Amino acid sequence: MENNMIKKSYAKVNIFLKIAGKRGNYHELVSRFVRVHNLYDKLSFIKTHRKAFTIIGNFSCNLETNTVYKAYNLIKDYDGVEEFFLNHEIHIEKNIPEFAGLGGGSSNAATFLLMANQYCNLNLSKDELCSIALKIGADVPFFVYQYDSANVTGIGEIVEKFDEEILNVETITPKVKCNTGEIFKIFRDNFYKEISNEDAKRLLSMKSLEILKELNIKKANDLYESALSLYPQLGSYEKKDWYFSGSGSSFFRINNGK
Ligand SMILES: C[C@@](CO)(OP(=O)(O)O)[C@H](O)COP(=O)(O)OP(=O)(O)OC[C@H]1O[C@@H](n2ccc(N)nc2=O)[C@H](O)[C@@H]1O
Ligand SMILES: Nc1ncnc2c1ncn2[C@@H]1O[C@H](COP(=O)(O)OP(=O)(O)O)[C@@H](O)[C@H]1O
């Protein structure tokens, strides 16, 4: 029988990423997230007789730190979930580089939640899924909503659809494992600044292409200088019209109209 319990799990880039304040150990963001259509992992649920919870895929992390396992633990007490995953293995075909600022692990967790909601008939709303998602990581709520483009604020829990043309995003990922927590720490200690409400409002109202026309790589992403100070080798990838995603290490450009 053909398996149709399969779903694409897309990467994202941050068109711009500004810091708006602190919340405990976390930082409040003002950011435009855009889905990368040509870069995705594939998640599938495949019937098995193994009778044990199983994730199969080529990731570098162990089971306990896998975002999909974290997502499973948050929903396993819902009716039928444990039973379903004793009878179905989770397969993940990884194409999105890890530690790359492309949200691969976050995207996998969100895709898992969406699929479990559908195939285990949980009937959870997007908002309910979003509050589960936030417990896994700051980027996960964006992927739950499945928008092509969205304004993301708070520490990632406020996700508002942004209407604009579909962007053709090209990425390159240097072989540098950027540690998000370390980069935020350096930012807090050495580079801390907050965007004003007025500037935030303006950026959030502008189309991604207009924003990139106006800002250079450092102005577009408040974390870039912190990432550079921790991983100076990133500097050799700087090129005209290329920008930096999240806490790195990926650079991207938009090819619309080229
Ligand atoms: C910077 C961003 C922008 O999209 O992306 P990535 O580069 O990771 O893709 C994200 O906000 C990252 O989100 P995510 O990767 O889910 O981070 P988490 O696992 O929740 O947090 C890892 C660590 O980063 C710091 N952190 C994270 C998010 C945030 N808004 N403020 C923070 O200070 C915290 O120290 C936290 O312990
Ligand atoms: N399903 C997963 N896919 C990829 N990375 C994962 C996954 N689960 C946990 N991780 C861990 O998440 C971290 C990288 O997160 P990822 O979302 O791929 O990158 P980034 O946050 O830089 O965009 C690594 O510690 C990786 O081992």
From TrEMBL:
Catalyzes the phosphorylation of the position 2 hydroxy group of 4-diphosphocytidyl-2C-methyl-D-erythritol. It comes from Arcobacter aquimarinus. GO terms for biological process: isopentenyl diphosphate biosynthetic process, methylerythritol 4-phosphate pathway; terpenoid biosynthetic process. It comes from the Bacteria. Belongs to the GHMP kinase family. IspE subfamily. PANTHER family: 4-DIPHOSPHOCYTIDYL-2-C-METHYL-D-ERYTHRITOL KINASE, CHLOROPLASTIC (PTHR43527:SF2). The gene is ispE. Its EC number is 2.7.1.148. This is 4-diphosphocytidyl-2-C-methyl-D-erythritol kinase.
